[in-house]
Amino acid sequence: MSTLFTRRTVLRGMGLLSLGLLAGCDDSSRLSFKYGKDLSDKIMGRTFKLKDAQGETKMLTSYRGLMPMVFFGFTQCPAVCPTTLARAAQAKKLMGRDGEIMQVVFITLDPERDTPQMLDAYVKSFDPSFEALHGTLEETAATAKEFGVFFEKIPSGSTYTLSHTATSYVFDSRGTLRLGLSASLTAQECAEDLLTVMEVC
Amino acid sequence: MNSIHANTVFSRRVKQVVLGCALIGMAWQVSAQTKVDDAWVRATVAGQPSTGAFMTLQADSDSKLLSVQSPVAKMVQIHQSSMKDDVMSMRQVESVALPAGKPVSFDPHGYHVMLMDLTAQVKEGDQVPLTLTVENAKGEKQSIKVDAEARALGMADHSKMH
Fold first, then answer.
1. What is the pTM assigned to this prediction?
2. Across the interface, do A78 and B51 touch by the CB < 8 Å criterion?
3. Does residue A60 contact residue A101 with C-beta atoms inside 8 Å?
4. How many cross-chain Cβ pairs, A to B, lie less than 8 Å apart?
5. Is residue A92 within 8 Å of residue A66, measured between CB atoms?
6. pLDDT tens for residues A5-19?
7. Do B48 and A162 touch (CB under 8 A)?
8. I need a surface site. Which of A35, A174, B94, B152 has the fewest CB within 10 A?
């Protein structure tokens, strides 16, 4: 019974896979990543509307033709934010010329303290191509929700710090969400999975 | 004559006592040694109000790090970050245990020192003075001064996260 079920599941899986291969660039095609999580079937992060350092409105479609890698954080984050941004810069270098289409988009979860100019200088110290976006508190919360990003203010003496999801979200050049990279991966591992995203679209 | 002799004896005694105290003091210092290695601070961009300081501490006897002070920050806290389901959580801790002979790492993935309310931008190459207060099991406090080098904000972190 259970063997039959397994076989049926495998067959169904193979069917889906071949459909996916046929479909190529289709939104429904699933990808297999060595290290990251395939998010091809997730509908996330499609409608955000935030501002860049120059005050211009940026949406997902603003990055068409590029491979946006979206990461949420804040500049007073001592650990995972600089580590992840430095990793992204390193992965971009490891990808060589292919890395040119990778666009790192850092979204602040702390718009009350992260001023646009400071944010811009912060991300550009990792790589001059990196971009930082900000919104109002409501826009920030809505964007985080749309990505399934958890964040929470933690009071700390007279100030506060933030706990937050440290996943990097990668879209393909047509704006389909593809890959979730956990903070535990190395730059080399990220680069390999990023190249897989590029192969498909 | 007699009184002069007595004085000499007295001053000799005093000297002995002073020397004895000094020796005890030195011995105490030796017994309460805490070694600080590879102390560094992440450089900031202009206007960034806080940053992290990192190092490795190793105490000779069971001790704990109570607090850190620095002239570059109006407030210094010890934080612990932890990762669960790819969510990075941060919390302030009262102290950090330093078990005898065991190196305790303060790195971006665990304990770290938060320098908050910075008085100025921390630039790459700056020497940031830190004063650590460590207490041993007997309740004796030791003050350790170190200069932590400011490393580039965009510096790649080579240690893998867990």
1. 0.81
2. yes
3. no
4. 116
5. no
6. 555 555 455 544 444
7. no
8. B94
**Closest to A75 (Cβ–Cβ): which among B48, B89, B109?**
B48
Contacts of A165 in chain B (CB under 8 A): 86-88
The contacts of residue A196 (CB under 8 Å, 6+ apart) are: A31, A32, A33, A34, A179
Structure tokens at A191: 């680069």
Q: How far is A22 from chain B (nearest CA, A)?
A: 33
User: What is chain A's pLDDT, residue by residue, as a tens digit (201 residues)?
Assistant: 444 455 555 545 554 444 444 445 555 578 899 999 999 999 999 999 999 999 999 999 999 999 999 999 999 998 899 999 999 999 999 999 999 999 999 999 999 999 999 999 999 999 999 999 999 999 999 999 999 999 999 998 889 999 999 999 999 999 999 999 999 999 999 999 999 999 876
A93-122: b (≥16 Cβ within 10 Å) or e: ebbeeebebbbbbbbbbbbebbbbebbbbb
Chain B residues whose CB is inside 8 A of the A121 CB are: 45-47
Task: Take residue A23 and report the two structure tokens written for it.
Answer: 């479909």
Structural contact between residues B91 and B44, judged by C-beta atoms closer than 8 angstroms: no
ipTM: 0.79
Within 8 A of B90 by CB-CB distance, chain A residues are 79, 154, 156, 161-163
- Residue-wise pLDDT for A39-52, tens only, equals 999 999 999 999 99
B27 in contact with A, Cβ within 8 Å: no
Give the residue carrying structure tokens 């033709």.
A65
